[in-house]
Design brief:
Low-confidence stretches: 1-31
Helix content: 40-55%
Strand content: 15-25%
Shape: globular
Oligomer: single chain
Structural class: alpha+beta
Radius of gyration: 25 Å
């Protein structure tokens, strides 16, 4: 079909307009930003499966703690902007795990397979290891394991509050031990539960006193 001069000019104008539109960089194609994932799989431990996902652009995160034969399912939790920034800073120091080898490659006990993963703009990079001597990776690992333990205690306290009031003191003792060890990255997340126990006369007095003491310690740390 013959094209008229007017048609040719119109097509040229359309092509010129399209050429003037800048191509979006890969990072802009993912408005949600990157996502850091920590996963640990360790058979015969409790829990056997740990997974934590932290978004680059939101303080809302997810965690999953379960045995391997249980149904998968993540739950939401929140972390402070300061802790999220610290975690992402460590991820950045580790070059988002691109071409990274963290394992010591020595014959040591099986401590569970750990995975650091970064997803951004449709691209994924990850590293797996059993044990590492890398100081930055060790710091990131400790924070992730601490978050997992913190959420495990949160769930335990919630269950005991609802279904096992006599067992609440044992859960508080576990919380006290981990608080003393400095394991919990943000123990203030437990404050609503500690305050609830301290104020509820249905719990034994020794548990209420321990909850008050723990809440005071946490507030002092904050």
């Amino acid at each position: 079909m013959m094209l008229t001069l007017r048609s040719i000019c119109a097509i040229a104008l359309v092509l010129a307009a399209m050429a003037a539109i800048p191509f979006a960089p890969a990072a802009e194609l993912s408005p949600a930003g990157g996502v850091f994932t920590y996963r640990r799989v360790f058979q015969s431990s409790v829990p056997e499966f740990i997974e934590i996902k932290i978004s680059e652009t939101s303080d809302h995160a997810t965690y999953e703690l379960r045995q391997l034969d249980e149904e998968p399912g993540a739950s939401p939790f929140e972390l402070s902007p300061a802790l999220r920034s610290k975690i992402l800073g460590l991820v950045s120091q580790l070059k988002y795990f691109r071409g990274l080898d963290l394992d010591v490659h020595r014959k040591i006990a099986n401590l569970g397979e750990k995975t650091f993963r970064w997803d951004s703009g449709g691209q994924t990079s990850e590293v797996k290891f059993n044990y590492t001597l890398n100081a930055t990776a060790t710091q990131l690992l400790q924070i992730c394991e601490g978050l997992a333990r913190q959420q495990e205690l949160f769930d335990l306290l919630q269950r005991r509050i609802r279904y096992d009031r006599l067992g609440i003191n044992d859960a508080l003792l576990q919380t006290e031990t981990d608080l003393t060890k400095g394991v919990l990255p943000e123990p203030q997340r437990l404050l609503p539960l500690l305050d609830q126990i301290a104020a509820d006369s249905r719990f034994v007095e020794i548990a209420r006193q321990r909850a008050r003491s723990l809440a005071e310690r946490v507030r002092h740390l904050a």
